[in-house]
């Protein structure tokens, strides 16, 4: 049985070209980039060449890229260090109700330290209101942290508009771009972004690798205490082979490739919706299908069928999908994203799955998913006498 992987918002497989790059560098460029002899100089050169590729991808300067272990470290560093470094200017922060846990948990920690956080609500499509944002902005706001795109429903935040509003405000602007980076065009100068987080494994790169963009002029102490790597901004010996592999994944992900993938994933969404409708499946989309959203994410409410049942039956059919964010998949707590969108009593919270596409998916994969869902729905209807209650 050919297995189908449709949980690319959780992680993506490394492509052959990226694996080849990382393997080669593990063999020939494994030196410590902080040393002064030939092994170190070779590693340092590869590190800086890779940094240049990463910087170019968001229109940043090379020295604004800080190599990290991924999105969680980047988010924690940007949020916590900004708060502590700027608390004399104010203790107010603005975010949204649908951020990733790597943003929400640092914010909860800061609330315990006496900071105030305004969590902007979202509508049933997962969008915030710029009017709400403007109303929440205060003179003592020191940080705005709003994701570029949501990892559960694919909604896209008005990053450019927020950046323009903040251009003349004291607040620093951080965006968690972990899901958006690699799919959407990002320009930190155009969008007035001060801090930006990424993670390599979301775009076919290695895990435990990412970067924090930190605009020149943004100063706070290193989050990790130790050596003076990354010009004293992030302690720890750099994983040069993994950085090179990350840069390889980014280098092949050109603007044209981003647009091609977005169009392809939009086609996948339409194919799934049409296929389910043609087969009489009772469902609804959580969020909205728009060409300029994060098109690799599709969240579907299968009415009357629990998330657990649908996800388990699809797994038995050789198809991997998610019940929400992979970072909370082991939790019994309902999706905070769907709760924010539809309220705590909505059946969508316990009857929805997330399908997310990647570079290796094909129309054949999509058709296999449709056929499997139709089979599962029909089986449950028969078990429940057509009521569909067995899956609740």
TrEMBL record:
InterPro entries: Aminotrans_V_dom, Cysteine_dSase. Residues 4-369 form the Aminotransferase class V domain. Pfam families: Aminotran_5 (PF00266). The keyword ATP-binding does not apply. Signal peptide: none annotated. Keywords: Iron, Iron-sulfur, Metal-binding, Pyridoxal phosphate, Transferase. Its cofactor is pyridoxal 5'-phosphate. The keyword Iron-sulfur applies. It comes from the Bacteria. This is Cysteine desulfurase family protein. It comes from Limosilactobacillus panis.
